[in-house]
Amino acid sequence: MVQRIDQMAADLEGTPPHILDGVPETLAYLADRHRLILLTKGEPAEQAAKVERSGLQTYFDAIEIVVEKNSEVYVQIIEQFKIVKSHGWMVGNSPRSDINPALQVGLNAVFIPHSNTWELEKTAVESGTGKLVILSQFRDLRQHF
Q: Strands 108-111 and 132-134: what pairing?
């Protein structure tokens, strides 16, 4: 049983992540016009490997992997990358980790709900000082930015 589990984990680690329709084209479009920073949470080696397998890392000026995404982390990112809050945007599908903390610290946010968002990441979108845009698909970012 342990060998089967190990093999399943190895297979999963070697499988490229599923990329939603329109994501590569939209990232290419955005990367030509804006500085893109990928902020993701999880175990660093696992997340870095996932980003590498996706083939999308070339679109980002920086990739930051953190244990948790909360308002303190967003403040650190703002300071580290000298982001002008009124011009910075967080794009994500998680109200808990992406949208609410960004809005709380004064960033703008684009919420793109996704049916496969982990249940623990779902919560009501809270108001903040930043602007909020809600889109149905990632590719719709091209119409706004």
A: parallel
DSSP-assigned states of every residue in 34-94: S--EEEEES-HHHHHHHHHHHT-GGG-SEEEEES--SHHHHHHHHHHTT--GGG-EEEES-
CB 100 within 8 A of CB 74: no
Q: What is the C-alpha separation between 41 and 70, in angstroms, rounded?
A: 10
Q: What are phi and psi of 27, to 5 degrees?
A: -65, -40
Q: Tokens 């650190």, residue? A: 76
Closest by CA to 20, choosing from 116, 109, 110, is 116
pLDDT band, very low/low/confident/very high, at 141 (cuts 50, 70, 90): very high
Class of the CATH domain delimited by 2-143 = alpha beta
Would you list the domain boundaries of the chain? 2-143
pTM of the model as a whole: 0.84
